[in-house]
Design goal:
The chain has about 80 residues and is mainly β. It is about 10% helix and about 50% strand. It is built from one helix and five strands, in the order E-E-E-E-H-E. Strand 3 and strand 4 form a beta hairpin. The longest helix is centred in the last third of the chain and has 8 residues. The chain starts with a strand and ends with a strand.
């Protein structure tokens, strides 16, 4: 069986303006973009939940608050073997 290298992108959700008054400002969540494009994101703070989405654009649409929050991709790729 041949192995294939999978690359996972890491990102942080950075909130410049806290529109809801709940999560605060700065880095409010950490996430990964899986090789198939799906996304897992974990909120920081007192109430920690994990969000799953089909693509990064969905995270930006739901949690971006019209530009008040942005996704910052890490320059590093995490590698693994499938």
């Amino acid at each position: 069986m041949a192995t294939e290298t999978a690359r996972v992108r890491v990102f942080q959700l950075v909130r410049d303006v806290d529109v809801t008054g709940f999560s605060g400002i700065g880095v409010v969540a950490d996430g990964v973009i899986w090789p198939d494009g799906a996304v897992s994101m974990r909120w920081r703070g007192a109430v920690r939940t994990t969000v799953e989405a089909q693509r990064l654009a969905d995270i930006e649409l739901i949690h971006g608050h019209d530009g008040a929050t942005r996704v910052v991709l890490s320059a590093d790729l995490m590698e693994g073997v499938l």
